[in-house]
From TrEMBL:
Keywords: Hydrolase. InterPro entries: AB_hydrolase_1, AB_hydrolase_fold, AB_hydrolase_sf, Peptidase_S33. The lineage of its organism: Bacteria, Pseudomonadati, Pseudomonadota, Betaproteobacteria, Burkholderiales. GO terms for biological process: proteolysis. Belongs to the peptidase S33 family. SUPFAM superfamilies: alpha/beta-Hydrolases. Residues 31-262 form the AB hydrolase-1 domain. It comes from Rugamonas fusca. This is Alpha/beta hydrolase. GO terms for molecular function: peptidase activity. Pfam families: Abhydrolase_1. GO terms for cellular component: membrane.
Length: 282
């Protein structure tokens, strides 16, 4: 279904599981887990079917960011982190969701970090999964070289310094397979995922080059779980540690997954989903 979040924009939304369930003589409301997918330019398909295993404890809300996937197309200049963060609140208002649990994966984690800054009182909890607070190119290049040699480092440097169709070809061939250890995953892309490369190149070449999300994390007013893979080349482990250091110490929890790459719930699903489940249930 498509949900109107502003006069000129609808977001594609899909729901897994009931929000209200029988509990003895009454009905019990489960928490809402709102999933912010990676990208930019991709859709929510990479979350499926993995996150269905949490539908027994939470109602799962999948959606495609503004302009992405099955959501309405919008002008590129409108697609900023501020707008995406505002859409989280707009979508919750439209669906009648209060105090959601937010999970942002990769680019979705950028959106979640900006949302923490702008709307710190809005969520019940936030999960930041395989994400970064800034471009951090030097760290990216070091991990790509460690995992894929100089060819991967060179392809990564060319793409991140000048995102375009030309530099994307080598990056997708050489670097994307290094994102994850899972055989069907290629970063945030699985074979069924749709990709709008115009959005990808515009964001990666403009806002991502200058973003710094660390200062806003100090405004967090709820528990935040940070998940990171030891072998993540595009959102390196040290980026996650910077996020942890910037969050209020009494709110933050951190889990490092050794031997895992980008999206620890892909590479170590049992351990990762068990950790997410524990956080939701706390």
């Amino acid at each position: 279904m498509r949900i109107q979040v502003s006069p000129d924009a609808r977001l594609f939304v899909d729901v897994d599981g009931s929000g209200l369930v029988p509990d003895g003589a009454g009905m019990r409301e489960k928490p809402t887990l709102l999933l912010l997918h990676g990208g930019p330019g991709y859709d929510h398909a990479g979350f499926k079917p993995g996150f269905s295993r949490l539908a027994d404890i939470a109602q799962i809300i999948y959606y495609d960011h503004r302009g992405h996937g099955r959501s309405d197309r919008r002008p590129i200049e409108e697609l900023t982190l501020d707008t995406y963060a505002e859409d989280v609140v707009r979508l919750c208002d439209a669906l009648g969701i209060t105090k959601p649990i937010l999970l942002g994966q990769s680019f979705g984690g950028f959106v979640a970090q900006r949302y923490i800054d702008k709307y710190p009182e809005h969520p019940a909890k936030v999960i930041l999964s395989s994400t970064s607070p800034s471009l951090g190119l030097a760290r990216k290049l070091a991990v790509f070289e460690r995992l894929g040699g100089t060819e991967a480092r060179d392809a990564a440097e060319q793409f991140w310094r000048s995102p375009s169709e030309t530099t994307w070809v080598a990056y997708q061939r050489v670097c994307k397979p290094l994102y994850s250890q899972a055989p069907l995953a290629c970063g945030d892309v699985v074979p069924r995922t749709t990709v709008n490369k115009d959005i990808l190149f515009a964001f990666a070449g403009e806002e991502q080059q200058i973003m710094n999300l660390l200062p806003g994390l100090a405004r967090a007013q709820c528990p935040v779980l940070v998940l990171a893979g030891e072998l993540d080349p595009v959102c390196p482990l040290e980026d996650a540690k910077d996020i942890v250091a910037a969050l209020p110490a009494h709110f933050v929890q951190f889990e490092q997954f050794d031997g895992c790459g980008h999206g620890v719930w892909r590479d170590a699903p049992d351990a990762a989903f068990a950790r997410i489940r524990r956080f939701i249930n706390e």
